[in-house]
Amino acid sequence: MAKAKRNCFQSESRPDKELKDLVHRLNRIEGQIRGIRKMVEENVFCPDIMVQIAAATSALNSVSRILLTSHVDSCVWKELKAGKKEALDEIIFAFNKIAK
């Protein structure tokens, strides 16, 4: 059973500055991943590849933290003020996913 598509910013769009920052970060991460693939294909020294993997992982974690902060500041806050306590369960679930 497929989950219904939900939008975080239901009544408005994501702020332009945040959107541009996230897209910029994700584009850089995409380039890092392509670089890692090339390193693997070229049989580069394994520890050098692992350093790049750690950098890409750190960059992805940074994107997750930005999204989580934005989600709490906007969506979760509004839902909690409206008495929708399930928003707290959702944010705990999301936090547990990125905290691993």
In short:
With 100 residues, the protein is mainly alpha-helical.
- Please, how many helices? 3
Residue-averaged pLDDT, rounded?
87
- Assess the beta-strand content as a share of residues: under 5%
Overall number of strands: 0
Listing every helix as H and every strand as E from the N terminus to the C terminus, the arrangement reads HHH
Q: What structural class do the secondary elements suggest? A: mainly alpha
Topology:
Elements (H helix, E strand, L loop, with lengths): L15 H26 L4 H36 L4 H13 L2
Helix pairs in contact: 1-2, 2-3
Quick tags:
100 residues; mainly alpha; 3 helices
What does this structure look like?
This protein is mainly alpha-helical. Helix content is 75%, strand content 0%. It has 3 helices and no strands. Helix 1 (16-41) runs antiparallel to helix 2 (46-81) and helix 2 runs antiparallel to helix 3 (86-98). The protein is elongated, with a radius of gyration of 17 Å. The protein starts with 15 loop residues before the first helix and ends with a helix. The relative contact order is 0.10.
